[in-house]
Description:
Elements: H1 2-27, H2 40-50, H3 71-83, H4 89-101, H5 105-110, H6 112-128, H7 130-136, H8 143-162, H9 168-184, H10 188-202, H11 209-245, H12 260-274, H13 277-299, H14 310-332, H15 334-338, H16 347-368, H17 374-393, H18 401-413, E1 420-424, H19 430-435, E2 441-445, H20 457-462, E3 465-469, E4 485-488, E5 491-498, E6 505-510, E7 518-521, E8 537-540, E9 546-551, E10 563-566, E11 569-571, E12 573-576, E13 579-584, E14 594-597, E15 613-618
Parallel strand pairs: 1-2, 1-3
Antiparallel strand pairs: 3-6, 4-5, 5-6, 7-8, 8-14, 9-13, 9-15, 10-11, 10-14, 12-13
Helix pairs in contact: 1-4, 1-17, 2-3, 4-8, 6-7, 6-16, 6-17, 8-9, 8-10, 9-11, 10-11, 10-14, 12-14, 13-14, 13-16, 14-16
Amino acid sequence: MRLPVVGLLRALLAVVLGWLLVRGLSSFPPGSAHVGLLNADMAIPVLMANNSSGHRFFDAYYFGQDRFGAWPYLLARLARGVLGFDWTASRLFWAHATAALLAGVPLALLSRRAGQVAAAACALVAVTNPAVFRSFLSISQPYAWQVLAMCGAWAVLHSLLLTPERPGRRLVGLAVLSFLAVWMSTTSGPLLVLLLGVELLALRGPESWRERLWRAVPVGLMVAAGMAGERTLRWRYHRTVRRAFGTDFQTDVHLDVGHLLDNARALAEVWARDGWRLALGLAVVGAGAFLVLRVRAWRGARAVQVPEGWEALTLAAGATAVALANFAICVAVNHVRGNLYHERYLTLSHLFLAMAAALVVLAGAQALLARTRASEVGASLFALGLLGAAHVGMPAPAPLPEQRVLEETARALQPEHGHRVLIGGYWHTYPYAALARPGSVVAVPVEWDYHRTRFDWAKLRAADEVVVNHAELEAFGPAHAPHALIGQLGVLLRLVRTASPREGFSLYARADREALPMKPEPWPSEWNLCDASARARVRFESTGPVTVLVRSMGVRPGDRTPRAVLAGRELPVEVLPDFYRVRVEEPVGGDLPLEFGAIPGMDRGAPGCRAHDVFVLPGFASATR
């Protein structure tokens, strides 16, 4: 009779967890009040799932940084190629939410009683704690995939130490899962090593410590192999992207010497806002009980009987160690302080503390109900209770109306055929590219903002028309009266019309297609038009009148101008928004440079001193009026 009851309870657990996942898909999608509007950071995974950068190793990590890996998006891209469908933000969220809410299931597969409680606790905190679901269920963050791979590696590691016979496939699986966990986030490496230490400490039986250490050697080697594999991949990534883009996108992470105490206080305050204090207390009690029982076993006989609930207590100690170690890592590194102690960095601490607390309760119950009928079904009933609490505590769906506006704007931006380049701020370009038909909108943030897709610069330089999004972008003028000329990444654009394709956007066309060849001396980025000792000249040949435009961000009509001298004759210099304009009426030979003199009385760092681009256009082009 035992087997049917236990089997039915486990089947019921699977149904209740599956229904929790279905409900979560409607409560936490991008554009809900619980995770926020689809933003640029959420958009990047969608873009990665649909298209390649063309640089193999650049695709190995989240575009434009090396902090976390991209294997989920590469698998999504493979599925798209095989099955022939496009990834939308919603579809990618379905995959992400599945990984998040099933992250603890690997523990349940290899450690039935304790594992199912850990899996249920993980799902509970994921859907009820705002500090967790805002990051854990956001497609912009790696934690769902990291925890899934870590729990898989932990389950295999636990199994190998308990039953080391015939380890072949499990060792390979451990190496692969360790590699995936570390690839997703390098913090996984030390956390897995810590888990190995806890599991080794928990071993009980007649073996000597030397025998136990030898048992752990192949397990540790597989974890090390996963870490070494990721390290090799990262080295290839840095080498490749440095050659392709001139930078290796390496995150500056180091020990935050001099700020450790301040970091600890700040992070403790962040955790306290939404942290479960009861979970922390239970986790500490469980860790203490684990250590006390371990010490008592060392002092007693080797063959001392394993107490009831020991496996649950072992997993609780491991989860507690991960939670505290993650907090310690956040305290130790400068990157967390640099990002203002954002709550996302404590996601793993929240998750694993909840798992530890539930496992401590289970261990206590198993010790009290040892060798009774209730002990057979207690874990399943407790897990069902946790999932029931998750259903009760999960917030109701709360879609944001602004998300629909984003989606409608993305559809308005996408052309019927081909693609359209969109220029704007980082936060106001990538979301539209992700919401539009894949490849139909190419996001190019303004050159002074952060660029995650530098491989798309070539599409800007090849485009005949581009759209500019003026949201939070004052440099190009207000949306109702934008500048007639703008320059970006070596491209000159002229205004065609405003409110196109809708309010807040402007349509620009290329104005430099007929530009004459020229040679600046030195390169314009080295010019300082406020330094009398600096040299600034441009050589070109023309057979008629030309207009020379020098792009200098921040200069405005009415500002003082540099001198422009050609063949000993000074030419008038006009000021347009962000440009100096010089009109040359007569033909010019290549041996006569147009020279620019210093702006008198200007500080070297003032707007208008630095140049960015130079364009020589034939005639007195209407584009420059």
